[in-house]
């Protein structure tokens, strides 16, 4: 029978276990982005800049849906991890089956609603006529894979709850190889363009979800998926997942929603700006994968230790996670800035596209250390189950600043550099607000434990 790779998060040193936990998770994120990168590179190199821009137009739309999915999956991660920390295997198993059913329901709903709203999304984004057909085709085909994306993310969260970030990584490795080969086959052999690369992604998502599902059905212990229980919903577990995961998903969706507004502004600057932006985004998001991975390490380690009643270790886990996060982020930022032009050259040979891509990299990647603080404190609070206030803080700060910026500062000076400056400004203000929330929450926890 298959056995999972567990980490003892409740005892011993933290930094080494966090590295073992976070690095596979970071590389999993990088591989997930490789799906998009492969789509962009194949279309940019073998079809046209317009086809490449079509994928870029869909990044905020897809990001909005996937962010909600990953937020709910994070709720599953917290709930299962807390049950494991309490040594309650029966509740943990009920939560695992509830997570699977929730994934299926979310994926089906996202597919249906997305297909109905695809045409409207193109109009709201003001996609240029030269790109709109490819853009809508890509989105509609991509949405067919939403049930598989949801199942993969929820089951990956189940593995993560006990410290196993390697199994989801290997599943994604297999899927990524298929995705790259599928892109080349559908575009070069069948001449399918944007619809072809989206179809390859759908099939790759099916493979990664299928591997995790099979592994959990073969596993021993609390995390085993059993066929008779697949569609059983444990209401307390479901309510906890939604209470913790919905605000987390909302927080991620806020970024994507505000990015829809920014994407519309980018579209107004023409196809080169659109292509340069998507190429740079495809690179810069890999830096965020490492920031997000160490943030999720804070969530999971805090969840288990909070379930075990060890508040001191929860706080240590937060600070260790932040320190490791800074180191990883600075290393990634250095690589991206130094080799930025060469990396952009993989996606386009146009000098104008590369130059615009570098502008985005300098404005968005260099300030990422601010994002480290923002992600870590927010993820740590979710580990305690304190999820809604950080989401509201992010909603108010990010959305307000970015909308006002586009409508005032960018409107007054409609240049690409002006638009990109909104990212570090909104991050800084949001980070200040989240740090205030974290300090306030910790004081309340201290008083509560003194009363106990």
Description:
It is a single chain. This protein has one domain (15-451). Helices cover 83% and strands 0% of the residues. It contains 17 helices and no strands. The longest helix is centred in the N-terminal third of the chain and has 37 residues, at 49-85.
Topology summary:
Blueprint: H1 15-46, H2 49-85, H3 89-124, H4 129-143, H5 146-160, H6 166-189, H7 193-218, H8 235-267, H9 271-307, H10 311-338, H11 340-344, H12 351-364, H13 368-383, H14 388-407, H15 409-412, H16 416-420, H17 422-451
Helix pairs in contact: 1-2, 1-6, 1-7, 1-9, 2-3, 2-4, 2-5, 2-8, 2-9, 3-4, 3-5, 3-8, 4-7, 5-7, 6-7, 8-14, 9-10, 9-12, 9-13, 10-13, 13-17, 14-17
The helix-strand sequence is: HHHHHHHHHHHHHHHHH
In DSSP terms (H or I, runs of 4 or more residues), the helix count works out at: 17
Percentage of residues in strands: under 5%
Question: For the residues shown, what is the average pLDDT?
Answer: 82
- Portion in helices: over 70%
Describe the oligomeric state of these chains in a short phrase: single chain
> What is the count of β-strands?
0
Return the domain count: 1
Please mark out the parts with pLDDT under 50 across 5 or more consecutive residues, or reply none.
Answer: none
């Amino acid at each position: 029978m298959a056995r999972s790779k567990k980490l003892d998060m409740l005892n011993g040193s933290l930094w080494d276990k966090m590295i073992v936990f976070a690095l596979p998770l970071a590389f999993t994120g990088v591989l997930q982005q490789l799906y998009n990168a492969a789509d962009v590179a194949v279309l940019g190199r073998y079809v046209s800049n317009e086809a490449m821009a079509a994928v870029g137009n869909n990044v905020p739309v897809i990001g909005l849906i996937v962010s909600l999915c990953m937020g709910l999956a994070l709720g599953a991660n917290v709930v299962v991890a807390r049950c494991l920390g309490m040594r309650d295997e029966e509740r943990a198993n009920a939560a695992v089956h509830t997570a699977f059913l929730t994934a299926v329901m979310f994926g089906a709903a996202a597919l249906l609603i997305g297909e109905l709203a695809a045409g409207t999304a193109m109009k709201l984004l003001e996609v240029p006529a030269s790109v709109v057909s490819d853009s809508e085709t890509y989105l509609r085909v991509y949405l067919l894979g939403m049930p598989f994306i949801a199942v993969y993310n929820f089951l990956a969260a189940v593995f993560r709850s006990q410290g196993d970030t390697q199994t989801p990584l290997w599943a994604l490795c297999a899927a990524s190889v298929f995705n790259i080969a599928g892109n080349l086959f559908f575009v070069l052999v069948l001449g399918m363009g944007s619809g072809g690369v989206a179809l390859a992604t759908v099939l790759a998502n099916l493979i990664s979800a299928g591997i995790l599902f099979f592994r959990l059905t073969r596993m021993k212990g609390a995390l085993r998926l059993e066929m008779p229980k697949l569609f059983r919903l444990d209401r307390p577990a479901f309510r906890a997942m939604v209470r913790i995961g919905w605000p987390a998903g909302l927080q991620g969706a806020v970024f994507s929603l505000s990015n829809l507004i920014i994407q519309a502004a980018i579209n107004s600057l023409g196809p080169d700006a659109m292509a340069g932006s998507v190429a740079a985004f495809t690179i810069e998001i890999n830096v965020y994968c490492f920031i997000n991975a160490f943030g999720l390490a804070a969530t999971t380690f805090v969840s288990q230790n909070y379930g075990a009643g060890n508040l001191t270790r929860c706080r240590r886990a937060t600070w260790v996670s932040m320190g490791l996060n800074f180191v990883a982020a600075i290393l990634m930022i250095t690589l991206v800035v130094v080799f930025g032009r060469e990396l952009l050259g993989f996606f386009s040979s146009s000098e104008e596209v590369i130059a615009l891509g570098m502008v985005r990299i300098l404005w968005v990647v260099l300030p990422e250390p601010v994002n480290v603080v923002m992600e870590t404190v927010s993820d740590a609070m979710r580990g305690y189950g304190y999820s809604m206030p950080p989401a509201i803080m992010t909603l108010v700060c990010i959305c307000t600043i970015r909308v006002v910026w586009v409508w005032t500062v960018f409107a007054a000076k409609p240049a690409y550099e002006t638009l990109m400056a909104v990212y570090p400004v909104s991050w800084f203000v949001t980070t200040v607000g989240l740090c205030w929330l974290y300090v306030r929450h910790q004081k309340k926890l201290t008083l509560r434990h003194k009363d106990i």
